Amino acid sequence: MMIKRTLVPNKGELGILLVALAYLPGIASADWLTTLNQWGSNIRLGLYTLAGTLGLICLIWSGAQWLIARSTGDRSHTFMDYLEQVGVLLVVGGSVLLGTAAWQVFGTGVPG
């Protein structure tokens, strides 16, 4: 009696394949973790740069609206609106800072 076979490996064969792949020199070395950590650091730095740039653009835009409203005399955008925008940016920046601090303490297990 013939056993019907397919090209899809069963669980035992898949386990043997994974163990064999784990022993390959390129995969067994921990150098790939350094690469992933570097990518993570670059992405984090890019997100900080993007958040800071967008925050600065929003603050400049709010300041420009305030100056235009002052020059035209229509009071559509006041100094309090500008301060409100500063407050929003402080809250967003603080949350990013707290998230980073929490990740350093709880995410990596190494504070600092």
UniProtKB/TrEMBL annotation:
Q: Which UniProt keyword terms apply here?
A: Membrane, Plasmid, Transmembrane, Transmembrane helix
Q: Give the stretches traversing the membrane.
A: 46-68, 88-106
Q: What is this protein called?
A: VirB2
- In its UniProt entry, the species of origin is given as Pseudomonas syringae pv. syringae
